[in-house]
């Protein structure tokens, strides 16, 4: 390896000198206020909402004649 006049090793790649910097003035008071990714707050009675919506669409579709009764009869009719 070759060295320069001060005795430091020479390199083909220059590296940045590390210095300690201070945070920007606007971010000085913030600490860890990041939002995590996720599903968010749970919907009240969310587990019952899916089946109730399915029944509502099924009933409305049967009443409107969009669902053939030979394939799928209206809910509540046996």
From TrEMBL:
The keyword Membrane applies. Residues 14-30 have a biased composition (Low complexity). Keywords: Membrane, Transmembrane, Transmembrane helix. The chain crosses the membrane at residues 48-67. Residues 1-41 are annotated as: Disordered. This is ABC transporter permease. It comes from Streptomyces violaceusniger.
